[in-house]
Specification:
43% of the residues lie in helices and 13% in strands. The protein is α+β, with helices and mostly antiparallel strands. The protein is elongated and about 135 Å long. The N terminus and C terminus are likely disordered.
């Protein structure tokens, strides 16, 4: 409604950030004195009518009756309703039309029971279906919770508070610390104003706001300026983090940046899972087959068997009900529910059931780096001294110096792709670059290196690498760990020269300070150093506070020397090395030697080439009378001393956010499963490449990385090629993610994409499988996704992919179990009558019971089977594949044939035992049975006594059918492995629980008086009948095992027995509709460019 109201106003895209304040006022068609007077009440009312309320539109919600109708509006439910109506009509007819003494109580009872059972089936299926859809999209709600409730505006020259939904374009809004911006605004006054826009732009620190227009580079599109660089704009739902200001509302409601995202994430097509859609399609085919079988059964019953009209209709409907898979849709839904529960236990929360199917088809997983592939904890990985490299165990849990081990070959050479480059080039590509990532104001590395400071001769000339020191003497042998004294003296500079606070037990919880500095404290803590004790024993006497201008920090401490203080300096390594005259030999602070500048410069280059941040730790002594306690010193204390080079360099700290150990194995498993893993990060190219090498993402096939700016310059065709040859995307923005997704889809890839911010929501929606972070992510990202990682761990995605494949396999097993049972029930009735039986070998209640009990118990056995061995060594399932392929159909037909033949055979076997009347058969309970045979043909003498009556045949057929179903289930548990093996007793405890339940129920229904005769129309069985049941159950099991052996042989010969290739039942073109077309515009960098469809 709100969108319809806005049709009368100009909604063309305006680059408000590129306009001056005067141009903004003119564009909004406001008075020149707007900044002082604001809008008048009349103007505000008119604009509210034109633009609509400042709120985001919501999707129309379904009523409960619409939900119910959607569940019952299918042809099989219609057939069941018809059966229920006919059964009710028969019961009413039997109760009212015949004389009381001729009324058949059994018929009346079974008819009403049938009506009750059918009603129950429909009700349960409807309830489960509605429950499954209960997790509808809540993205709009999550976004609404971010919006402001009130706004302080200037109206008619006065400050007034109004509800935020009444804000209109042109309103002058006053912002104070802690306020939430009620609209997208052009700032006109700023008093140290800064807004936190992390969720929207990805910028972690608050953005300082200005009032001047943003300069647009020549030839550039103003709309391509990233939101994070629009410093004169504030955006709806962002918070004022400091200062105050005044702005003019330029867009409201759905037309704000967050409103645009709301429209993207709320355009969700509510649809059934692909499997349930297949079942709907199969239902229509089944309806035709069932109708034909029912009609044939009626004609045979009426004309060949001589049944009366009502009886013939009842028999036909038994066949009809038998073939309808009443419980199939419920068991499929329960299969998904079980899978989603299992995934939740493994930290993968599924929000939409179709995602379970998609997981089995994923070919590419595009993952964020920080926190997903890595630990999101900056860690010291190596400490480099003048002659050695000490590797630190970043996954250590014990606090011992042995976590450091000397490994001189570790990071001893530049990364291969940086071998012959100059130092400046190496630094520029790596984690020590001072360049800010796209959309950010400054580098996240406070100790970054300015390559312009380095003269060419230090870089080593054309050949790049400077000669390195070759000394490998002490103090510890290669492969040995240093002692606690060495570690204490090596790292105490990093601990004391820091204002950071380490988290509880060395974790991130409660930590305060720069992550790079905290990494040194964490390494010291896990080496056994008592951080708090050290700081308490050696307090700061004076300091040079850190500044990004000079990129170092210095603190002065009294370490017990009577005449001198100890000065600790840590900072950007390039600056520190130039100030050092000596170096601690081998890292021993009491053994000094002249500083080998070229050695340290090359070590900086080596570490940078591997994507590591580098921090230099230095120290020196100064006379106590040269500084005063509590003195705040300037940078000249360090870099302006008369002696020039005066420091001693102890070592270099190599720091990175290390990979999660479990992710390495997960990526190896994913690659083995034919799933490619790509990494998308805002980090530097070298850092991303180094992490990619460690994880196994960068390999011979995908040997390098590409950056976001490079992607921005590519055409659509170039982009489509790039996503197929690169696995690492560095310096990438959220907008790059969207193009990557669309390009992969254009290449017929099934793409999973991870994200955490509001600005990631469109990419999550565009992906085939959006995955949001549960710990670090925003509500909007979570609501825009199909799956949430509760632990933010990539390995969880691979676990979920495995579960998705398992679900698909298990659904095929469910069909293999349930379909033959349904078919055999109906075919047994049809062929029993066709071969000479006068009445159905199965009663209506037996049929309904078998349908339900087999679906709930035996079907669920298959639904919860654990993954079979080797499932992650198979390629992803192709899109458009149907559950039922050639070989599965063949197996279903074989099982149906065997079960039908044996059920019918059991009836005729027992019937043949009635030798006194040449195989006659009638009911023992129904005295009026038209098939009754009397002694000497005289009705007054009574009926002859049979060895087996109709009730005996129905009892045997009923048990042959259900115990035969158990045999099918046991064989179906393993696709190729034999079930005649101890493995059949392992892996699925519910299997044997279900078999026990079915067995107990079969005995109970067979022998409980009244229940067996009046409800199920059968009687207790003798040993001969149980012998038939046992024999036929074994035959079913052996036949299905033989089929399995033949199929295994065919697979060995190269046949597609898994139905992985496209066949006659499949749709190779499925999912192709929206995967052509254009990608986002070249250089796209703003969310408000296109509306993406799911």
């Amino acid at each position: 409604k709100d969108i319809e109201q806005t049709d009368t106003v100009d909604r063309s895209v305006v680059s408000w950030h590129a306009l001056t304040i005067e141009e903004t006022i003119e564009k909004l068609r406001c008075d020149a004195d707007l900044t002082t007077r604001g809008l008048s009440s009349e103007q505000a009312t008119e604009r509210l009518a034109s633009y609509g309320q400042n709120k985001m539109s919501e999707a129309e919600k379904e009523t409960i009756w619409e939900k119910i109708w959607k569940q019952v509006a299918n042809v099989l439910v219609f057939i069941l309703v018809v059966v229920a109506l006919v059964s009710a009509a028969r019961a009413i007819f039997e109760q009212t039309v015949p004389p009381k003494d001729e009324r058949n109580a059994t018929t009346i009872l079974t008819s009403w029971v049938q009506v009750g059972l059918i009603t129950t089936v429909i009700t349960v299926n409807t309830f489960i279906g509605i429950l499954q859809e209960g997790s509808a999209e809540k993205a709009a709600e999550a976004l609404k919770n971010m919006l402001s409730a009130d706004a302080r505006v200037i109206r008619g020259g006065r400050e007034v508070m109004i509800p935020a939904i009444d804000v209109v374009p042109g309103d002058v809004i006053i912002l104070s610390l802690g306020d939430r911006c009620p609209a997208d605004m052009r700032i006109i006054e700023s008093t140290n104003l800064a807004c936190g826009e992390a969720a929207l732009t990805g910028e972690a620190v608050p953005i300082d706001k200005v009032i001047t227009a943003i300069d647009i580079p020549a030839g550039a599109n103003a709309e391509q300026i990233p939101l994070g660089d629009r410093f004169n704009m504030t955006f709806s739902a962002t918070l004022v983090a400091q200062g105050s200001g005044v702005g003019i509302a330029v867009t409201t409601g759905d037309y704000t940046q967050i409103g645009t995202i709301n429209r993207l994430v709320s355009q969700v097509e509510k649809k059934k899972t692909n499997v349930l859609e297949q079942i709907d399609q199969v239902s229509k085919l089944l309806a035709v087959l069932i109708s034909g079988a029912t009609l044939i059964t009626f004609f045979i019953a009426f004309f060949a068997s001589g049944q009366d009209g009502f009886e013939a209709v009842s028999t036909a409907l038994v066949c009809c009900v038998a073939m309808i898979p009443e419980g199939l849709e419920a068991i499929v839904t329960l299969t998904y529910a079980w899978a989603t529960t299992n995934m939740a236990k493994n930290n993968a929360i599924i929000r939409a059931l179709p995602a379970v199917e998609t997981l089995g088809s994923v070919t590419v997983i595009c993952s964020d780096k920080t926190g997903t592939l890595t630990q999101n904890v900056m860690s010291l990985t190596a400490f480099v001294t003048s002659n050695a490299h000490y590797k630190f165990d970043v996954n250590a849990t014990q606090r011992v110096p042995a976590n450091f081990v000397r490994e001189d070959v570790y990071l001893c050479e530049r990364a291969e792709h940086q071998q012959m480059k100059s130092l400046s080039s190496v630094i520029k590509d790596g984690a020590n670059s001072g360049a800010a990532r796209k959309g950010h104001l400054e580098s996240s590395n406070h100790f970054s290196i300015d390559t312009s400071l380095h003269p060419v001769e230090i870089e080593g000339g054309k050949d790049g690498a400077a000669p390195a020191a070759t000394s490998s003497e002490g103090p510890f042998a290669n492969g040995a760990s240093p002692d606690s004294t060495f570690v204490y003296n090596a790292l105490n500079g990093g601990v004391l020269c820091s204002k950071c606070v380490l988290g509880d037990n060395g974790t991130r919880e409660g930590e305060i300070g720069n992550p790079t500095e905290l990494s040194i404290l964490r390494a010291a803590y896990f080496s056994g150093i008592e951080i708090d004790t050290m700081k308490r024993d050696f307090p700061i006497v004076a300091e040079v506070p850190f500044s990004s201008e000079y990129k170092f920090m210095a603190t002065i401490h009294d370490t017990g020397d009577a005449e001198n203080y100890t000065t600790f300096v840590k900072g950007a390594p390039d600056r520190m090395v130039k100030l050092c005259s000596t170096q601690a030999k081998g890292g021993v602070i009491d053994d000094l030697e002249p500083c080998d500048t070229n050695y340290w410069i090359e070590k900086i280059a080596i570490l940078s080439s591997h994507g590591l941040r580098v921090l230099a730790l230095c120290r020196a002594t100064i006379p106590k009378d040269s500084v005063e306690k509590g003195e705040n010193l300037g940078p000249e204390f360090v870099n302006g001393r008369p002696e020039g080079q005066w420091l001693t360099i102890v070592g270099l700290c190599a720091i990175m956010d290390p990979p999660r150990p479990e992710c390495v194995q997960a990526i190896r498993e994913a690659k083995g499963a034919g799933v490619r893993v790509a990494m998308i990060t805002g980090d530097h190219k070298d850092t991303a490449t180094a992490i990619g090498h460690m994880l196994g993402i960068v390999d011979e096939k995908y040997s390098s990385a590409i950056t976001g700016p490079e992607l921005d310059e590519m055409s659509d065709d170039e982009m489509k090629e790039a996503v197929m040859i690169y696995n690492v995307f560095a310096r990438a923005s959220p907008q790059n993610k969207i193009r990557i997704v669309k390009a992969l889809q254009a290449q017929k890839q099934i793409c999973s994409m991870t994200g955490d911010g509001v600005n990631d929501a469109p990419a999550l929606k565009a992906a085939d499988m959006g995955v949001a972070m549960g710990k670090e992510g925003t509500d909007v990202a979570r609501e825009a996704s199909e799956m949430i990682l509760a632990d933010d761990n990539f390995a969880t995605i691979v676990t979920a992919v495995k579960e998705g494949r398992t679900v698909w396999d298990n659904l095929r097993k469910v069909l293999f179990i349930n379909t033959p049972i349904n078919n055999a029930q109906g075919m047994s009735v049809l062929f029993g009558l066709a071969f000479g039986l006068k009445q159905s070998p199965l009663s209506p209640i037996q049929v309904l019971y078998s349908n339900l009990i087999c679906a709930i118990t035996l079907g669920f056995v298959a639904a919860i089977e654990p993954a079979e061995e080797g499932i992650m060594s198979l390629p992803p399932r192709r899109i458009g594949k149907r559950l039922i392929g050639r070989f599965l159909l063949l197996r279903i037909l074989i099982a149906t044939l065997v079960l039908t033949c044996l059920v019918v055979a059991s009836a005729f076997w027992l019937k043949s035992k009635n030798t006194m009347c040449d195989g006659c058969l009638f009911s023992i309970e129904d005295e009026n049975d038209a098939n009754s045979v009397y002694i000497d043909g005289d009705e007054s003498k009574g009926r002859i006594e049979l060895n087996y009556y109709l009730e005996d045949i129905r009892a045997t057929a009923f048990n042959v059918l259900d115990f035969g179903a158990i045999s099918v289930t046991l064989s179906a548990r393993f696709t190729y492995l034999g079930s005649i093996h101890p493995r059949v007793f392992r892996g699925n405890a519910y299997c044997w629980f279900s078999i026990v339940v079915v067995t107990v129920l079969q005995f109970a229904l067979t022998y409980i008086p009244g229940l067996n005769t009046f409800v199920f129309q059968m009687k207790g069985m003798d040993l001969f009948q149980w012998g038939i049941t046992a024999l036929f159950s074994v035959i079913v099991f052996l036949v299905m095992e033989a089929e399995k052996n033949v199929r295994s042989y065919l697979k060995f010969k190269g046949e597609d027995t898994d139905d992985r290739q496209y066949g006659v039942f499949d749709n190779p073109m499925e999912g192709e509709d929206n995967k052509g077309g254009d990608l986002l515009p070249k250089g796209a960098s703003n969310l408000n460019l296109v509306a993406l469809e799911k």
